[in-house]
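User: Predict the structure for this protein chain, please.
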Amino acid sequence: MSKCPYCNTSYNEILQTGFVGCQHCYQEIEELKETLKKMYGDKKHKGKRVKANGNI
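Assistant: Here is the predicted structure, written as structure tokens:
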């Protein structure tokens, strides 16, 4: 079981609470990376972008 070296949050803690400890957890906790890859594929989150007409 891996833990984030920055905030010491474990994968089990994330599953129990539903909260990720810090932004580094996404890269440091292997189980979290694998779970997110299964859920979303290899896509990277790019955030919402405002379209030319001002709608999201």
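Residues 30-40 form the longest helix (11 residues).
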